[in-house]
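Lesson 9: reading folded outputs for more than one chain in a single document. The general rule is that every protein is listed as its sequence immediately followed by its structure tokens, and records are never interleaved. Here is the first one.
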Amino acid sequence: MARRISFDRPAPFRAPRIPQAGRLRRVAERKGLELRPLAGPEIPMPPEQDQALADRAVAWMAAYNGSLPEFIVYEFLTLKKKQREGLDFLYQNPIFGGRTSFGGYVADFVFPQRKQIWNVLGLRWHLLHTEDRARDLVAKQMLTSRGYLVLSLWEDSLLTSPDHVLELAWQGMEEVNRNV
């Protein structure tokens, strides 16, 4: 008998199995590996940047708990395009209930007047697992159906050619990453 799929209710959430921390530590020590925090690898600041920029980046990351690529986008919006947070754009805005609601989503940069959403995507967190890619695709479809233009800004593009990528995004071009 074929299994019926109901679209009325969401499927129950199954939490991923998390290995015990002590066991991971012992395996890592035995193999000579270094355990890093869950936030991912450190992204070095380009050497040609001045100390004032580095100080602003450290202060911003401490205040907003953001990443270096998100800081690059934030600086582009506030310094180059003279946008004001909370008025012209929203940073880390919960949409459809955010992380606490089923189907919820947190968008990195939302432009309500322009009906645009920019998401800064890291290769490790948004490309490695099929579940992450599927979740991003579903969220993009939901937001597109509400009339938003959703642009994905990949961290490697932001770190190598930020001005080019951000100007394309500012112009609302969907091929942001294809032209890099």
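And here is the second record, again sequence then tokens.
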Amino acid sequence: MQFIPAPRPSPIAGRWYSGDPDTLSGQVDGYIRQAEKSADKINRKVIGLVVPHAGHVYSGLTAGYGYRQILGEDRGLVVILSPFHQYFSGDLLTTAFSSYQTPLGEIPVATEILTDLDQRLQETGEGLRQVEKDGEHSLEIQLPFLQRTLSGEFEILPLMLRSHNPAILRTLAGTLVTLLADKKFLLVASTDLSHFYPEETAKEMDMRMLAHIERMDPAGALEAEKTGQAAACGVSAVAAMLWAAQSLGARQAKILHYSTSGDVSGDRASVVGYGSAAIVK
């Protein structure tokens, strides 16, 4: 793989979250402090997180409940699995840049590991496509939270998933497992839940999806999205993360927080659902 020796410029800073470093740090820290007031830190090793990816003003608090669980921890490698909301050919995508830029600084991409992952996937008939003109928000929106919660330096493995094929997602998960077993890692699945239903309907659908996550049932989550019983734009990211986490020793999922956009906007007629969960040993 070839990487542009420059940071990916942020297309969403100043819009989806504050472009001012001090303001952004204060807001992210504030979401985590609010979560600390009502959520104990889980007493077991967190292998993965499910977190939302709307603008911070809408889903930041729910995300804070997730990131509160890894506050102060040293994780050298963070695998971020997200959807890709624009059209681009290919089932599995990644960045063409060697780092990501946010107002809080630059985060290096684990280019050697990413290249190794691509080579191993190619041996299975899959592979990664690199995206240069990348406006995807769902992956980047997680970065300020990681910058404010993790201690020490870390690299990211950015993976944007377009496929809903369970076989492809299982292959990705299995290949990731071979690369992560000896590393200090964290898996992050970025997803929002149902979109633009009345809040009562949204909550019914979202509880179904969160139940699949809580049961650590990736196949059920994919099927619920496929049949319309529930919805999550990042369901493929969730499924791949759960399959990988299970192989890496995860035994339980805990739902941490749920909210809707109506909690902020006051509009209950058409909402987006947000949930966070921790996957633990």
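What the second record shows: Residues 51 and 276 are 5 Å apart (CA to CA).
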